[in-house]
Amino acid sequence: MTVLSKYVDRIAEKCEQNGLSKHAFSCVLVTSAIVALTIKITIPYVRNTQSQSPRKILSGKTKGSTGALTPSATDGSDEDLKLAEAEKLLVAQKLKNKTNKQMIEPGLNKEFLKQLGMLVKIMIPNTLCYETGLLSIHTFCLISRTFLSIYVAALEGALVKFIVRKDVKQFSLVLLKWFGIAIPATFVNSMIRFLESKLSLAFRTRLVRHSYRLYFKNQNYYRVSNLDGRIENADHRLTEDISVFASSVAHLYSSLTKPCFDLMLIGLALMRSSRKMKANILTGPALSVSVIALTAHILRIVSPKFGQLVSEEANRYGYLRHIHSRIITNAEEIAFYGGHKVEMQQLRQAYNRLVNQMNNIFSQKLWFIMLEQFFMKYVWSGTGMIMVSLPILTGSTGDPSLVESSATESNVSERTQYLTTARNLLISAADAIERLMSSYKEIVALAGYTYRVAGMMDVFEETAQGVYCKATVVENDEMNGIIEFRDGKPVAKGRIIYTDDPGNMSITLRAVPVVTPNCDIVVPSLTLCIEPGVHLLITGPNGCGKSSLFRILSGLWPIYAGELHIPRPVEDKPCMFYIPQRPYMSIGSLCDQIIYPDTREDMKRKNITENELKEILKMVSLEHIAQRDSFDVVRDWKDILSGGEKQRMAIARLFYHKPRYALLDECTSAVSIDVESSIYEIAKSMGITLLTITHRPTLWKYHTHILEFDGLGSWRFRKMDLNEQQKEQFLH
User: Fold this and answer.
1) For the segment 322-341, what is each residue's pLDDT rounded down to a tens digit?
2) How high is the pLDDT of residue 440?
3) CATH fold match for the domains 105-394+410-465 and 492-726
C-alpha cells in the first residue's frame, strides 16, 4: 500500500505540473473507482440476460443438426473438455442427490439449529462438567477484557488531558497506571486464546469419543463403507471435519460474545461521556445504527454467493485429490500400460478447473472487499467522527460571563480527554461490529461442517440398526417380493437366531436370499444345514454368490428374508473364523499377527505361551520368522512377508483360535500344494469344520459335501462321491 500511495503521489505531482490540481486528480481517481465498481456489479446481470438467447439457439442447433463438426467447434475443443468434466461432476452430484433425497442441504435453517443442538449436547453432556467450567472461565475473561479496554481508553484520554494541561505529576501517575494495567490486559488476552484452544480440544475429544463408539458399534466401520452409500470418506469426517467443527464452534463463541459485550458496555460508556458533556445521548447511537444497518443491507445485496463458490472449489479440489489417489492406488497397472500421458492430461485438466474457480473467487473478492473496506474504514470512520463531535459541538459550555482563562483551559483539556477516550472506544466498537459482520461467514461455514458431522452420526446410528441407503441396480418392482422397501430403503426382515444347545452346533439357513449391498439378488432362496464334521466345498462361476454366502454367515451382510441359525459364540472359542485371499496384517509385533484379533492380555488369560506360538508357526512352515525375529519385534509385516507367507500367517491365526467352523475363501492360492495339504490335514485333526471356496482340484479330497452354484440363481447341495473330480466349468 505504501508503494502504491507513493506511485499515486508521483502521478499527482506530474499532473499538477501539467496544470491539473491535486483536488481534480483526486476527484477523477475516486470517480474512476466508483465507475469501475458499478460496471463490475452490473456486468454479471447483463451477461445472464444475454446468455439466455445463445443457449436457446445452441440447444436448437443441437437438436436439429446431425452434421459434422465445424471449424469453430474444433477450435473450442478445450472448452468442450472442461464442459464435459463439469457435466460429469454435475451428473454425479445429481445421482448423489437422488440417493439422499431425505437429506437437507446445509444452510441457516431449522435443520441446522437442530443438528447443532444435538452436537452441543454431545460436547456439553452435563450442566456441571469440564466443558462448562472452561466456558465459564472463558466468558469471565471476555467480559474482563471489555472492561479493561474501556479502562485503558479512559487512561489514554486522561494522559492527553494532562498533556494539554502540562501537569507532569498527574501525567506520570496516569502513565504508571497505564503500564500497570498492561500486565493483566496481556494476561487476559493470552488466556482468551488459551481457553479457546482448550475448548476446541475438549469439544473435539467429546465428539471423537462419541463418534468412535458409533463407528465400531455393530461393525459400523464395515457397514458404512460397504453397505451404505451416503458417506464416501468416513476417515476425513472422523478426523478433519470434527476438528474443524470443534475449532469453529470455540472460535465462534469468542467472535460472538466478546463483540456483544464490547458494544453493550462501550455504548454505555459513550452515553455516560456524552452526558458529562451535557449533550443529547440518543443522537449519536441513532446515527450509528442507521449507517451500520444501511451499509450492511447494501453489502448483503451486492455480496457474491461465496458459499456456492467455495463449495464448488472444494468439489474441484476433492476431484483433484481423487485423481492423485487413484494414480497412487493403480500405479503398477498404469506403469504397465504406459498410461502416464492420459493420467497427466486428466491431472492438468482437473488442476486447471480448480485454478479457474480460484481465480473466479479472487476476482469476486477483489471488488467486494473494496466495497466492504470503503464502508467499514471510511463511511464508518466518518460517522464516528460525527458521533464524537456532536457532544462537543452541541454540548452546553455554561455562562459566558463566568468564563476565564483558567476555565477555558480546563474546558479544552476536558474536551480533549473526551475526544481521545471516545475515539478509542469507537475504534473498539467498530472492530466489534466488523467482527460481528464477518461472523456471518463463519456461521455459514459452521453450517456446512455441522451438516457433515451431524449427518455422519445420523448415518452411524441408522447403519447400526440395520438401515442402509445405497443405489440399487434394479427397480423395486423387479424384486419379486424378496426385498421390501420402506421410504426408499430396503428392510432386512430376516432373523439371526443364536442356539445355546451344546448338542446342536450346526449352521442352518432357511429360505435365506443372497443379496448384495446394492440389492442385486444373486440367489433368491437358499436352504441348507451344515453340521460339525460336514466339510463343505463351495463351487461356481464368478459372481454366483460364493463369497457373498460367507459374508451372510459372518453377519456382515443383512438378511432380507428367512432365518439363519448359528451357535452362539463362546468367549474363548469363536464359532466362525473367516480367512480371505488377501489376509490383513495389523500394526504390531509378530506375536500380535498370530493372535489377532486377541490382545496380549487375552493370550495370557488363555494360558498360551510363546512355545505354543512357535509350534503353530511350525505347523504352517513359518518357524524361520520366529528364529529371525523375536515375538516382540514390531515391523511392517504387510511389506516384509510375501503373499504366501501372509496366507500362512492367516492360517496360523486359525490354529491359534481353533473355531468350530473355518470360512476359507481362496486362502491358500499362493501356498505350495504340499504345505496346503498339511494345513488342511491339521485343521481337520483339530476338529475344525471347513467351508472352502477354491479352484484347486487337489483340495476336493478334504471335503465331504459340495454346494454348487450355477450363476443363474439356482444351487445344489449334495454329498460328494469318493472319487469325484472337479468339473471343467468350475475350473475357469
Assistant:
1) 888 888 888 878 888 888 88
2) 73
3) no
Distance separating alpha carbons of residues 213 and 29, to the nearest angstrom:
62
Give which of 708, 675, 411, 707 is closest to 530, Cα–Cα. 707
Global confidence as pTM: 0.69
* Contact of 544 with 709, CB cutoff 8 Å: yes
Domain range summary for the chain, segments of one domain joined by +:
1-40, 105-394+410-465, 492-726
Of 15-24, 34-43, 628-637, 722-731, which one has max mean pLDDT?
628-637
**Angstrom distance (rounded) from CA 508 to CA 633:** 43
Q: How confident is the model at residue 527 (pLDDT cuts 50, 70, 90)?
A: very high
Find, among 189, 176, 178, 190, the residue nearest to 153 by Cα: 178
CA pair distance 192, 196, nearest whole angstrom: 6
φ, ψ for residue 69, nearest 5 deg:
-75, 140
Q: What is the pLDDT of residues 580-603, one digit of tens each?
A: 888 888 888 999 999 998 888 989
Placement of cell 475516486 in the chain = 30
Q: Calculate the alpha carbon distances from 98 to 102, 314, 413 in Å.
A: 9, 21, 72
CATH class label, 105-394+410-465: mainly alpha
Residue 732 confidence (pLDDT) above 50: no
Nearest to 645 by CA among 605, 593, 711: 593
Sign (positive/negative) of CA torsion 349, 354, 358, 361?
A: positive
Q: How far is CA 423 from CA 153, 178, 419, in A?
A: 9, 17, 6
Query: Is residue 357 helix, strand or coil?
Result: helix
CATH T-level fold of 492-726 = Rossmann fold (3.40.50)
Cβ pair 384, 426 in contact under 8 A:
yes
Name the residue among 279, 238, 315 with its Cα closest to residue 390.
279
Distance CA 44, CA 368 (A): 14
Cβ atoms of 647 and 676 closer than 8 Å:
no
Q: Which of 150-164, 169-183, 312-326 has the highest mean pLDDT?
A: 169-183
**How far, CA to CA in Å, does 260 sit from each of 266, 381, 445?**
10, 20, 21
CB contact at 8 A, 119 and 248: no
Which is it for the CA torsion 587, 592, 595, 597, positive or negative? negative
What is the DSSP-derived secondary structure letter of residue 599?
-
The answer to whether residues 631 and 589 touch, using CB atoms and an 8 Å cutoff, is yes
What is the C-alpha separation between 68 and 71, in angstroms, rounded? 10
Higher pLDDT, 595 or 423: 595
The candidate with the shortest Cα–Cα distance to 143, out of 258, 240, 252, 29, is 258
Q: Is the peptide bond before 569 cis (omega within 30 degrees of 0)?
A: no
Please say whether the dihedral angle defined by the alpha carbons of residues 547, 550, 554 and 557, taken in this order, is positive or negative: positive
- How many whole angstroms separate alpha carbon 384 and alpha carbon 291? 10
Q: H or E element: which one contains 356?
A: helix 340-373
Cell 451428473 appears where?
A: 91
- DSSP, collapsed to helix, strand or coil, labels residue 64 as helix
- Strand (E) or helix (H) holding 536: strand 536-539
